[in-house]
Design a protein that fits this description.
The protein has 331 residues and is α/β, with parallel strands linked by helices. The chain has 2 domains: 175 residues, 3-Layer(aba) Sandwich (Rossmann fold), CATH 3.40.50; 100 residues, Magnesium chelatase subunit I, C-Terminal domain (Helicase, Ruva Protein, domain 3, Orthogonal Bundle). It has 14 helices and 11 strands. The strands form 4 sheets. It has a 5-stranded parallel beta sheet with strand order 2-5-8-1-9. The longest helix has 17 residues. The radius of gyration is 21 Å and the shape is globular. The two termini are 17 Å apart.
Length: 331
């Protein structure tokens, strides 16, 4: 157990180490109007080595947000449009025969970047999705007989269009589980949209300046792991996860016939990691229950399987998560 003095010292250190969060947010907010939740989610994914699945209608600044983040960190950005005719080689690269050297040389694909926007991931066939998910999980790709490490930091932001389902290849549950967060973004408020119109019609569209280096993010990721998490918070996380698996044990019997499967151990790991990253963003050296609650919907939204009964009664995963958070005892 850490002593009060140690936690105080840790808190002071985290406050110093996390000073860049405010600078980075200010730089992003020069370009992005509103979308506070999207920006926070990008930072959580970045600082806890997770990837993000983003759902929202077209035109909500998804591409602009990740491009702006890449500019602010002076990192390499790749936008890959997933289409039905895309091949794994278009993503990871391939071997090309060089007549000059009379040997095969590696031509690296767009996956070799710090920030990847996988636009409409469900438009491409399973083999392309698998190639991306392998890169996300292993942080490396194999071209021919050689294995190549991907640059650090490495963040994949995959988007799905919730409207059009025609001609798509939906991600299977096991592949959805690879994403740390599933973030649903909504329309901006009226005042925000007025600013967006003005900004886009102005002579010069704002651009983010580089305020950090990729190495700064790599260093910050190791500091995030030092954020203190008490045993009571660990038990709280486990209670939330187990309530998705065995709802009857948590006085949520009504959800037992509606949940086909709950969160896996990966959900527990991701909830703890995201809570630590959220505490870091809020410039705190320790996790409080509010941090867990703040990230819970994004971590579990794609990890709870619903039965036909739930669909018939219009019960969503959002409803189940909210009810679990309202029922499970807060430490």
């Amino acid at each position: 157990m850490q002593t009060v003095t140690n936690i105080k010292e840790l808190n002071e250190r985290i406050q110093q180490e996390s000073a860049f969060v405010d600078i980075l947010s200010m730089e992003i907010n020069k370009v992005i109007v509103g979308q506070k939740h999207l920006i926070e989610s990008l930072l959580i994914g970045l600082l806890s080595d997770g990837h993000i699945l983003l759902e929202g209608v077209p035109g909500l600044a998804k591409t602009l947000a990740i491009n702006t983040l890449a500019n602010a960190i002076d990192a390499k950005f790749s936008r890959i449009q997933f289409t039905p005719d895309l091949l794994p080689a278009d993503l990871i690269g391939t071997l090309i025969y060089s007549q000059k050297s009379e040997e095969f040389i590696v031509r690296k694909g767009p996956i070799f970047a710090n920030f990847i926007l996988a636009d409409e991931i469900n438009r491409s066939p399973a083999k392309v999705q698998s190639a991306l998910l392998e890169a996300m999980q292993e942080r490396q790709v194999t071209i021919g007989s050689e294995t190549h490490k991907l640059p650090q930091p490495f963040l994949v932001l995959a988007t799905q269009n919730p409207i059009e389902q025609e001609g798509t290849y939906p991600l299977p549950e096991a592949q959805m589980d690879r994403f740390m967060l599933k973030v649903v973004i909504t329309y901006p408020r009226k005042e925000e949209e007025r600013l967006i119109i003005r900004q886009n019609l102005a002579h010069n569209f704002p651009k983010a300046s580089a305020v950090l280096k990729p190495e700064d993010i790599v260093k910050a990721k190791s500091v995030v792991k030092d954020v203190y998490m008490d045993e009571k918070i660990e038990r709280y996380i486990l209670d939330i996860v187990f309530a998705t698996r065995y709802p009857a044990e948590y006085k949520l019997e009504k959800f037992a016939p509606m949940i086909s499967y709950g969160g896996s151990p990966r959900a527990s790991i991701n909830l703890a990691a995201a809570a630590k990253a959220y505490a870091f963003i809020k410039r705190r050296g320790y996790v409080i229950p509010e941090d867990v609650r703040a990230v819970c919907h994004d971590v579990f939204r794609h990890r709870i399987g619903l039965t036909y009964e739930a669909e018939a009664e219009n019960i969503t995963t959002e409803d189940i998560i909210t009810e679990i958070l309202n029922t499970v005892e807060v430490p």
